[in-house]
Amino acid sequence: MKILPYQPDQSGLAYSVGTTLDRFIKSKQRDFPFASGELSQLLRDIALASKIVNRETNRAGLANIGGAFGQTNVQGEEQQKLDVIANIRFIRALSKGGEVCAIVSEEEDAVIDLQNKSGKYVIAIDPLDGSSNIDVNISIGTIFSIYRRKTPIGSPIQEEDIMQPGTEQVASGYVLYGSSTMLVYTTGFGVNGFTYEQSLGEFFLSHPNIQAPETGSIYSINEGTQNDWAPEIKMYLDACKEKKYAARYIGSLVADFHRNLLKGGIYIYPATKKNPNGKLRLMYEANALAFIAEQAGAVASDGNMRILEIQPKDLHQRTPLFIGSKEMVKEALSYARKTATSII
Questions:
Q1: Same structural domain for residues 111 and 130?
Q2: For a Cys staple, 204 with which of 18, 62, 117, 226, CB 3.0–4.6 Å?
Q3: Counted domains in the chain
């Protein structure tokens, strides 16, 4: 019997399809000796749910699951059918995975206690960001934060397990459902992006070690609310226009953030007269993206302090958000007459 050592194919007939998300996660388990594989499994559960939501969004126009559901969520926003579907899909996947003890969702008034006393992790999630755009075929997304519970395994969930600042995140990420579907996440060791290959049903590493440009020429803000802005915000926007920066605003936070992360830019949702505390949610929108931003060399602030250092006091707490390329955020904060140096 002849035994030959394996040698990589040199024919060029079968090109490499790349590194799958599952294989990448397994290769990084050594970064988390305390996790014993649970965090890796949790990321796989999120990836599975995102594949299902991706399928639902792609068939929304054919299956009558677009449009409004007819109810409002805890923020008083009209729920879309896909909001409800995505919420169910992620909660179901996370509950069956067995690694999570509690979930904070944009679509739920209270904390969801999964009654899993052996679960080590708490998830804060916006199941479908920008869902009102689905009817016009514009990119939407999912945003998530992962925390380790503080109380002992086996004990009931307590407030201290839930109300943690962003600095306590062990992982965060987002899924972008657009011209292609991407999952981008960090575990505190850089940021990596994976693109979904539908024919194989797998996410493949497509954007390794993402680094945000230090500056850029894109600003993203809803200029329709400018009459409610502080004068300093208007001054900064005037400066952007004088420099001939490009205005790019999709209305899906994930999509705007993703573009600016790759190309260089700033996203701003300031306090307004209507929303003096800002509009975006701290626990399942701002914290997750701020963790990714900082790991990619970008910056996130509420206009006064680092987003990740804000101690949440309410599940659905809102915050202003200045996030993006370091130099652009620094300049925006200087116009707002805040101390930019404390977060740079």
A1: yes
A2: 18
A3: 2
Please check if 285 is assigned to a binding site: yes
The enclosing domain of 225 has a CATH number of 3.40.190.80
Domain that holds residue 246: 218-343
Instruction: Tell me: do 278 and 185 sit in the same domain.
Output: no
Task: For residue 128, say whether it is annotated as part of any ligand binding site.
Answer: yes
Reduced to 3 states, what is the DSSP secondary structure of residue 224? helix
* 220: exposed, middle or buried (Cβ count in 10 Å: 0-12, 13-18, 19+): buried
**DSSP string covering 262-293, please?**
HH--EEEE---SS-TT-SEEIIIIIHHHHHHH
**Is 50 annotated for ligand binding?**
no
The annotation status of 132 as a binding-site residue, yes or no, is yes
pLDDT mean for each 10 residues of the chain (344 residues): 72 68 85 70 93 85 50 58 90 92 95 92 95 81 97 93 97 94 96 95 96 98 93 94 96 96 97 92 97 98 96 96 97 73 48
Look at residue 113 and tell me if it is in a domain: yes
